[in-house]
Every structure is written in C-alpha cells, then in structure tokens.
Design a protein that fits this description.
Layout: E1 9-12, H1 30-38, E2 59-62, H2 67-75, E3 88-89, E4 96-97, E5 99-100, E6 103-104, H3 131-135, H4 146-154, H5 160-171, H6 179-191, H7 195-198, H8 200-234, H9 243-252, H10 254-289, H11 297-318, H12 320-346, H13 351-355, H14 363-370, H15 380-387, H16 407-436, H17 459-462, H18 485-489, H19 493-524, H20 545-561, H21 564-591, H22 606-623, H23 625-645, H24 654-671, E7 684-687, H25 695-705, E8 711-718, H26 721-741, E9 747-753, H27 756-766, E10 776-780, H28 790-805, E11 809-814, H29 822-855, H30 858-866, H31 873-884, H32 893-899, E12 909-914, H33 922-931, E13 939-946, H34 952-965, E14 972-976, H35 985-995, H36 1007-1016, H37 1023-1028, H38 1030-1046, E15 1052-1056, H39 1067-1078, E16 1084-1088
Parallel strand pairs: 7-8, 7-10, 8-9, 10-11, 12-13, 12-15, 13-14, 15-16
Antiparallel strand pairs: 1-2, 3-4, 5-6, 11-16
Main location: membrane
Membrane topology: Multi-pass membrane protein
GO molecular function: sodium:potassium:chloride symporter activity
C-alpha cells in the first residue's frame, strides 16, 4: 500500500533524536482532502517519548477505526520514510514547499540533524533554511524539480534515504561497546594491578590499618575528583576518539591538549613494558622455584616479556572485539582470585600458616596492626607514593571513547562505578589482611610458647607463638617481610598467581590499546605535522595499525633496556599530569562561564576540580620530585612548541571563552576610569576599503598603532541595500583573516549605506567599545579629485567636517602613486586562476596519455568532465600564454612597489615635522611613536615651527625647552619666519590654473547673470570667497615652496592639516589647498588633532 495516498493516516517518523514537536507531512490532493473532511472525529495524539524504545520505532497517530489499516501497514513490511523524504507539491503551480504544523512555510522545527558537524559519524548533516530564505520575498511560480526539493529537505543535495543507506553501509561491521564491557571492565582491570596482590599487605604492615585506609581513601579522593571532572567534560557534547587527549584539547585548546596528548600516549606505551615486565618477573620466580631457568633472570625476563608483547599485539591487531573478549576473561580470573583471598581468610589456619603469621580474624591482631610502624627510611608519604600508582587507570575506558556506543553515558557510569568497586576491594583486602596476619613471623613451627615462658605482650604471643627474635634479626614472613601474604592466606594459592597474571596482562593490554588510540587522535588533529603518518586508520573500526606497531616498538625497547625502576616514576607523573589537566579543564570551563558549558553530568564542582588539580600536582612531587620537574619541563617545552606553531584549529575551548570574559571585564573596568592625557594613544579608524586593496595606508597607520592603540580598517558598501549587505557579510571573515595572516593587529569593520558619507558618519559614531573608541580618522588623499564626480568631492570633504564635528582628529596620507591596488589584485587573481587551470589540464592530459593504451580516449573525457573542461578550453589556454607574455610593468609596477614602501625598513634619514598649529600635540606625537618602531628607528625628528624673524633664537630655545619637557628627542629645530610672505609668481600661477575650471567669475558678469550662476552652480569658487581667503591661499602655496626647499629629501613629512571653516570655504577650494600644499613631495601626513592635550610634561 502507498502510505502517502491513505486518506486517514498521518505518519510521524520519529528520528533518532525524538523531538517534542512533530511535523506532519500532509497529503494535499483533492481526493484525500475530501475524504478527510467526511470524518469529523479529531485525531488522537500520542506524546513523544524520549525512551530507547521510542527511538527505534515509528509513532503513528490514527483516528478511531483505523487500527486495522495501521496493523496492515506494519505487517506489509514497507519501510516508512522520514519527514525529509516526503515532498509536497502545490497541485496548481507545482511549486515546492514544506509543511510545518500543517502550514506552507520553509521554517523548520528543531531537529538534531541541523546541529551536527559536516562528516559526523552519528548521522547526516542537514542545513536548515537560511534566514535569507525565510526573510526574503518568496519567488512565485518557480517550479522546482524533485532533485532540488531533495536538496532543500536534506540540506546538502544528497537524498535522505540514500544518505542514510550509505551511512548504514559504513557502520556495518563496526564494533562498539557499552558501558560495562567498554569502560567498567577496563577501568577495574587497570585499577586492580599487581599492587593488590603483592604490595598491599606490606603497605598495611608499614602504615597500619588506620593510615593504610587513609592512604587508600586519599588516593581514591584524587581519582574520584578526576573521575567527576572527566564525567562532566565527557557529557558536555559528543566525544570522539582520543580519550584524555580529546577531553583536554577540546576544553583547554590545542596547546595544552597537544602537549599532554603526546606524553600521555608515550606513558601508555611505556606502561605496556612495565606491566609486561611485572608479568615476566612473576613467571621467572615460578621458573626459579621449579629450577627451570632458561638463561639467567634478567635475560629470561627479556625473553618472556618479548614473547608476551608479541601475543598481546596480535590480540590487539585482531580487532577490538577480540581484545574485549580477552579483557572479560582476565576480569573473571581476577575476580575469582580476589574471592579466593576472602574465602581463605575464614578457612581455619594450620600450624604452617600460623608460623608464618596467619591466625584468621583476631581482635588482638587488628588492634596491634591498627597503628603505623614505619621501618627505617619509610614514612606516610613514601608509602603513599608506592601505593598511589595502583589507584590509577581510571582513564582506561575514556581512552577508547571512539569505540563506545554512547561515550557520554558510558564514561561517567563506568568510570565512577569502577572507582567505587575497586576502592571497596582495596579497603576490604587491607582491613582483612591487617586483621589476620601479624607484622613479623619466623616461619618456624617450633617457635611456640610453652608453659613457664614469658610473653612479650604481642598478639602472636597471646596466640601461642613467640616471634620476638624478629626484633633483632630479619624474618622472612609476616606483613612487613613477605610479599606473598595474599597467596598464603588464600584458599588456593595458585589462583593468586593467576590473579597476578590477569592483573598484569589486562593492564598491559589496556595500555597497548590506549596508546595508539590516543596517538591517532593526536595525529589526526595535525598538531605535530611530522606525525601525520600515524593518523591513518584501517578497517571498519579505523584501527591505528601504525600506532600499534609504534607502541610495540617502544614497549620492546624498554623491555630490552630493563631500566624500568628509573622510568616508572616519570610514567606515573605523566599520568598524574593528565589527571591534573583534566581537573583544571573542568574548573576552567566552569570559571569561563561559557553558555556552551552545559554538562549533562551535574555532580561536579568547579572548586573541587581545582582542588583536585592542585592535589594531583602535589602528589607528583610526593611520588618523586625530580620526575615531577622533568614532567613539567617536557610539558612546558611541548606547550611552547605548539603555541609557536599555532595549529589551524578552532574547538571552542574554554581558553577562548575565558579570553572573551577577560576582555569584556577589562573593557567594562576601563569605563570606570577617567581618561588621562598620559594614557592617550592614537586609536584610528582607517578608511582602507578592503584592507588588502590599500596596504600602504594600513601599513603607515599600523606603524603608529601597533601594540599601543586601536586600529579599525573600515569599508563602506554603497548601493542597493540587499546586494550590499550580502557582499558585506560574505567578505567579513575573509578580510579579518587577511589581517591575521599578515600579522596586522587591527580589526575589520564594514557598513552598508546609501552614500559614502553616511556610512563613514555611522562608523565615526558607533565604532569601538567603551573607552576603546576611535579618536583619529585616517584617510588617503583623493588624488583624482579633479576628475571625480562632484558628489564624491562633497562626501570626501564632508567626512573631514564630520570628524571635526565629533571631535575626532584627522590624518590624511598622500603618496605620489596613490593607494588603491585593487586592479592589480584582480589581474593577479585572474593569472593565478588561469595558471591553475592550465596545470590541471596538463596533468589530465599527461595522466590520460599513460592510460591511452588500456583505456582509450574514454578516460580523457571522464577526467575532463570532472574538471569542467569544455570545448572552449584551447582558446582559454591560448589566453594564458597571451597574458603571461605581458610585461609586469603594464600592471603599474610602480604602484605595486609604492604599496609596500611602509613595510620595508626605512633608510637612515629624517621625519620632518611641520608643527605649524597647536592641535593638542597629535602632530608631534604620531612621528614620535614612529621613531620608536624598528622600521623607523634610523629616522631622526626635525621640527619646523613658524615664528618671527626678529625672535628666531628665542623661539628656538623655547621650543627646545618644550620638547625636552615632553621628553621627545629631536635632531634639530627650525624656526620659519617667512611663511606669510607671498609665494613667487610661478607657484601662484600654478594654483590659479588649478582652480580656474571651478571658478564662477561672477564679478565679470551683471548682477542677474551672476545670481543665476550661483543658483545653478553653487559648488563653484566665487571671486568673493577667493578674495576673502586670499591670504590663506598664499600660505598654502608658500608652504609648498618651503617644503620643496627644506624637506624634499625627507623620508616622511608630517604637516599640520589646514582646517576649512564650514560655510566659508568651498569643497573645491579646500581640495586645491591640499593639492598645492602636498604636491611633488615625499610621503606626507596631514595631521590635525581635536585640540585636546595628548602630550603632558607632568608626572
């Protein structure tokens, strides 16, 4: 039956992420509508369940009487499609639309598919309708094909069913573990190490039952806090493979994650050798007892260890399923051995065991063993350092996070339960062995007390044995002397040996699996590029075979070296460093207060996590101080290396979140501080357009704002709002990335406006944040003003007026070649594109020439189709050769060179500062800051000021005194006394010819004609205006003469910017002033501050 044609059934498919809001896809053909209207009974709705069962079946709401139809549907065996597979079409226009809550809308309800990453292993990524698609006017009568409808529904052009089918094929054969087999079993096996069987009794003997229990609880406190932190991080989002490395790197960033990930993987690899050597030593002891040594103890350990590692490698490479089965078998053996010990404590002791110190449960023994009795050289912390490695291993389950069905559920549940169970076992064994076995025993069954002997008051004495000679000479038995106490106490001794084998082999197997998994995740992130080779995985489970081989080589090397006593403390510290960073990650994420920190596991506290981190660091020094120092040095070196390399990753770490919080707090704190002249710094808005189009303008500004002030590169998009906003939004990230790539410490900002002046006005008013607001506007000189439309000139001069209105300083920069290199960039991009196409075509032709014999010409067409090579390709190839043959000079080589002139180190010379008008000191401050930069440090300041001819020396002394009080170094001071004399006739003639096309000449016409011309061309320069400001015009021309005479050889000229009084100076006359003032000169900065002090000589 076809469900879509059924008139009375509304099908809701419940995806894997069941939502409360269901979307019904309603069949809208006329027949079904008619039938549906006949049935007036309301539908019965069934509330969505979040249970596991509900996630695996369909929810179908049916009306009364349709149960039979419902049953037939389920029995028919047809596969129900998801919502994304249905396509509704309007019956009249065939226009595609979606149905949400029964209405025609593209607005989609919340679904998990919208929030997945591209390439997610848990399901397909689906793109929701964009805001533009929902907000913009819907085009009418647009027929959309079913294929495009699929693309809309599924987000990326791949039909949902097909995508799901592909994903199902990919997942076939993949082995995933639940929380028991994947986490609980592994953690228990790793925590229950050899220490349980051969050292715990000695620890109880040294520290006593009381302090022994305290040591166990203190160790458990460290691991429990770490477990809580691990659980919180693991439940704050989807966890991929990589274990501790993944958790730390995604929380604290690649710097911490990359450093700890490498040493954590190495520690696991060396731990394989440690556990295997522990196993081999036990086997060699058995060989000694049976007098079956192969060579000698050391070489026998190497031989047995090597064979064992090869076998373990075979199990690991065979697949995770085999490894998991082996772990379960080892756990069963281990549990039997532990139960065997407890059974042995209640089996009545015989004379042989009594002579060795075992008397079953005795209150006197418990009382005697409750307090500590440390031997020479031992203490609480030394005993704690010996026991603590036994409590580690809590990350064994997290390390295979990529192989877990649900890491978010499995890691917290399995890890915390494993810590609880193993702690109970450790406490039980410690208390039981302390209540059954005395500290010292001779092992001599004849050391019994006979009547008449004096009793020394010990527990053994009260039980009929005299072990008093152990105080004067060493004994071989008892808690303090015999490491095989558990084997003696147990009901069947060989089971304890089997337990030791199980503990060592399971820990070795877990480490052998963990190291490659963590290392593979680290290599996949490409933090260390040289290790990319080990990122490759094989098979359905993406097994890191190369990592297995590397781990095997490292383990074999350390087994053959056999110096594990030296390396063991460092390995323990490596693990503790990982625990410390996990705890710190949890604290840091909480402290950063990021809205993205929402762990589902709520049993944690940020301060407890911080305490856990500090505790781990303290334990590192308790275990071995020099190993702790080595660990910190290695981690610091790796941290610096990763920070220097700056891997191109963005994981939304808490470091980023805290940086934002710190920046926000600092910005808010700044608002409470009043501005002070000593802290003034140029904070600039630079009208660069796209920052890459006017690099010279940005470079000179960056030279005096870098590391000292704010720099914002601004662009105004003028035109139809819709197009402008789209263009602006699409380029924001690219242009900010260009700034970062070129190491320019600046921000990029853009606005869309109806005209250029309105956009700049918006930027001047709204840019910045709190005290970090721009106080200086930097613009390039409008070189083409004489050819530009009048509106452009009005906007250009208008923004200068606007800046002064907002009390913002202005800097106008002029270089002879101009700033805009956008045309050069376009040509370069086109050349690069054509060159890439040419290389691709050549590669395709070359490949197909090799395949021509076997595949004929079909391969060529196939590959050419992939590259979209059409019949016009030969023509395009010809154009490549034509363009490449062009000389670079045709693209204005001088302009390209000029655009980079401020990037280079400036030659030895001068910066000439013409401080003609006191603007608060900005004209002097900017060149002073430039001289502090490395590129400008060889340039000395020469100061030029106006003065009277008859007071040149006095004014020179006064200016030198002022500059010395400002603590500004200078090479020379020049007092210009002839600024106000008339310029020579040639210079004035040039100025008059410049403004001639823009003059009104109303004085030569009758009054009526003159008034008419003023109304028609109000922008022209009138004779009255020219006469009123004639002295100022003389000054601009005269200044150019002086500049030509004195500063023609300067590296840079900084000059006071003349101010045009609003309503008095026309725009064209002002542009003529700027033109004649800066004509034929080196690079010029026209500067005018806001007439508020930016310099002070007060402390």
């Amino acid at each position: 039956m076809s469900l879509n044609n059924s008139s009375n059934i509304f099908l809701d498919s419940v995806p894997s992420n069941t939502n409360r809001f269901q979307v019904n896809v309603i069949n809208e053909n006329h027949e079904s509508s008619a039938v549906a209207n006949d049935n007036t009974d309301p539908p019965h709705y069934e509330e969505t369940s979040f249970g596991d069962e509900a996630q695996k079946r369909l929810r179908i709401s049916f009306r009364p009487g349709n149960q039979e139809c419902y049953d037939n549907f389920l029995q028919s065996g047809e596969t129900a499609k998801t919502d994304a597979s249905f396509h509704a079409y309007d019956s009249h226009t065939n226009t595609y639309y979606l149905q949400t809550f029964g209405h025609n809308t593209m607005d989609a309800v919340p679904k998990i598919e919208y929030y997945r990453n591209t390439g997610s292993i848990s399901g397909p990524k689906v793109n929701r309708p964009s805001l533009l698609e929902i907000h913009e006017q819907l085009a009418k009568n647009v027929a959309i094909t079913p294929s495009s409808a699929d693309r809309v529904a599924n987000g990326d052009g791949i039909p949902g069913d097909e995508q799901a089918e592909n994903k199902e094929d990919d997942q076939a054969g993949v082995v995933k573990f639940g929380w028991v087999k994947g986490v609980l079993v592994r953690c228990m096996l790793n925590i229950w190490g050899v220490m349980l069987f051969i050292r715990l009794s000695w620890i109880v003997g040294e520290a006593g039952i009381g302090l022994g229990v305290l040591i166990i609880l203190l160790s458990t406190m460290v691991t429990s806090i770490t477990g809580l932190s691990t659980s919180a991080i693991a439940t704050n989002g989807f966890v991929r493979g990589g274990g501790a490395y993944y958790l730390i790197s995604r929380s604290l960033g690649p710097e911490f994650g990359g450093s700890i990930g490498l040493i954590f993987a190495f520690a696991n690899a060396v731990a394989v050798a440690m556990y295997v050597v522990g196993f081999a030593e036990t086997v060699v002891d058995l060989l000694k007892e049976s007098d079956s040594m192969m060579v000698d103890p050391s070489n026998d350990i190497r031989i047995i260890g090597s064979i064992t590692v090869v076998i373990l490698l075979g199990i690991s490479v065979a697949g995770m399923e085999w490894e998991a089965k082996a772990q379960v078998i080892l756990l069963v053996i281990l549990l039997i051995a532990i139960v065997n010990f407890f059974i042995g404590t209640v089996i009545p002791s015989n004379n042989e065991k009594k002579s060795r110190g075992f008397f079953n449960y005795q209150a006197s023994i418990f009382a005697e063993n409750f307090g500590p009795r440390f031997t020479k050289g031992e203490g609480f912390f030394s005993v704690f350092a010996i026991f603590f490695p036994a409590a580690t291993g809590i990350l064994a389950g997290a390390n295979i996070s990529g192989d877990l069905e649900d890491p978010q559920d499995a890691i917290p549940r399995g890890t915390m339960l494993a810590i609880f169970i193993t702690t109970i076992a450790y406490l039980g064994v410690a208390i039981c062995v302390g209540a059954c076995v005395v500290r010292d025993a001779t092992g001599n069954m004849n050391d019994t007390i006979i009547s008449g002997m004096n009793c020394n008051g010990s527990a053994a004495c009260g039980l009929g044995y005299d072990f008093s000679r152990c105080r004067h000479e060493p004994c071989q038995y008892g808690l303090m002397n015999n490491f095989q106490v558990m084997s003696m106490v147990s009901g069947f001794g060989p089971l304890i040996t089997a337990g030791i084998f199980s503990a060592t082999l399971s820990s070795a197997l877990a480490s052998l699996v963990s190291a490659p998994k963590v290392f593979q995740a680290l290599c996949k992130d490409n933090i260390y590029k040289a290790l990319q080779f080990f990122a490759k995985g094989y098979g359905k489970n993406n097994e890191p075979l190369r990592g297995y081989i590397l781990t095997f080589v490292i383990a074999m090397a350390f087994i053959l070296i056999a110096e594990l006593n030296t390396i063991a403390p460092i390995i323990s510290n490596f693990f503790l460093a990982s625990y410390a960073l996990i705890n710190f990650s949890c604290f840091h994420a909480s402290y950063a207060k990021s809205p993205g920190w929402r762990p589902a596991y709520g049993i944690y506290n940020m301060w407890v996590s911080l305490f856990g981190a500090v505790l781990c660091c303290a334990v590192m020094f308790v275990i071995n101080w020099w190993a702790a120092v080595i660990t910190y040095v290695i981690e610091f070196f790796l941290y610096v290396y990763v920070t220097y390399k700056k891997p191109d990753v963005n994981w939304g770490s808490s470091t980023q979140a805290l940086s934002y919080v710190s920046a926000l707090d600092n910005a808010l704190e700044l608002t409470t501080v009043e501005d002070h002249v000593k802290n003034f710094r140029p904070q600039c808005i630079v009208l660069t357009g796209g920052p890459m189009t006017r690099p010279a303008l940005l470079d000179i500004t960056h030279a005096f704002t870098k590391n000292s002030g704010l720099c914002i590169c601004c662009e105004v998009f003028v035109g139809p709002r819709k197009l402008c906003v789209k263009e602006m939004n699409s380029g924001m990230a690219k242009k900010q990335a260009w700034l970062i790539k070129n190491k320019i410490k600046a921000f990029y900002a853009a606005v869309a406006a109806d005209c250029f002046r309105d956009g700049v006005r918006s930027l001047l008013q709204a840019s910045g944040l709190g005290r970090m607001k721009p106080n200086t506007l930097v613009i390039g000189y409008k070189k083409n003003w004489r050819k530009a439309p009048l509106t452009e000139i009005e906007n250009y001069v208008g923004i200068i007026h606007d800046a002064f209105d907002f009390e913002i300083g202005v800097v106008i920069v002029r270089i002879n070649q101009g700033f805009d290199i956008s045309q050069v960039l376009q040509v370069q991009e086109e050349l690069e594109r054509l060159e890439q196409e040419r290389l691709a075509l050549e590669a395709t032709i070359k490949d197909n020439e090799c395949e021509e014999e076997s595949g004929g010409i079909r391969g060529l067409f196939k590959k050419a189709g992939k590259l979209n090579i059409t019949k016009t390709t030969p023509k395009k190839d010809g154009s490549i050769n034509t363009i490449q043959s062009m000389h670079v000079g045709e693209f204005n080589q001088k302009l390209v060179e000029a655009s980079t002139q401020f990037k280079k180190k400036q030659e030895k010379g001068t910066i000439d500062v013409w401080w003609l008008f006191d603007d608060g000191g900005l004209t002097l401050l900017i060149p002073y800051i430039l001289t502090l930069r490395k590129k400008w440090k060889d340039c000395k300041l020469r100061i030029y000021v106006g003065g009277k001819i008859n007071r040149i020396e006095e004014e020179k002394i006064a200016m030198a005194s002022l500059l010395s009080k400002f603590r500004i170094k200078f090479a020379d001071i020049h007092i210009i006394g002839d600024i106000n004399i008339k310029p020579n006739k040639e210079s004035w003639k040039v100025f008059e010819e410049m403004i001639e096309p823009y003059r009104l000449h109303e004085s030569c016409k009758d009054l009526t004609t003159a008034e008419k011309l003023k109304r028609e061309t109000p922008w022209k320069i009138t004779d009255a205006e020219l006469e009123a400001v004639k002295e100022k015009s003389y000054r601009q021309v005269r200044l150019n003469e002086l500049l030509q005479e004195r500063s023609r050889a300067a590296n840079l000229i900084v000059l006071s910017l003349p101010v045009a009084r609003k309503g008095s100076i026309s725009d064209l006359l002002y542009m003529a002033w700027l033109e004649i003032l800066t004509k034929n000169l080196p690079p010029v900065l026209l500067v005018r501050g806001n007439h508020k002090n930016v310099l002070t000589f007060y402390s």
